[in-house]
Amino acid sequence: MLEDxxxxxxxxxxxxxHHEFLYLKGYGAYAYLTPHDxxxxxxxxxxxxxxxxxxxxxxxxxxSFIRSFIKSL
Length: 73
Known about the structure:
Oligomer: single chain
Helix content: over 70%
Distance between the termini: 36 Å
Number of domains: 1
Number of helices: 3
């Protein structure tokens, strides 16, 4: 069950990044990134999310994380 949740979270992240690229850039994520880059971005998000969740600071949302990344390109 826990594995299904992890897979679901990864899929949701990939869908969200694609949606945000379409919204902000006019093209899907894979026009700008390789699938490997998207995997690395997801791992970076998970690491940041875990670190922030363990601290007192509010959690960074997926959308905020993705938009910050896209705007940095």
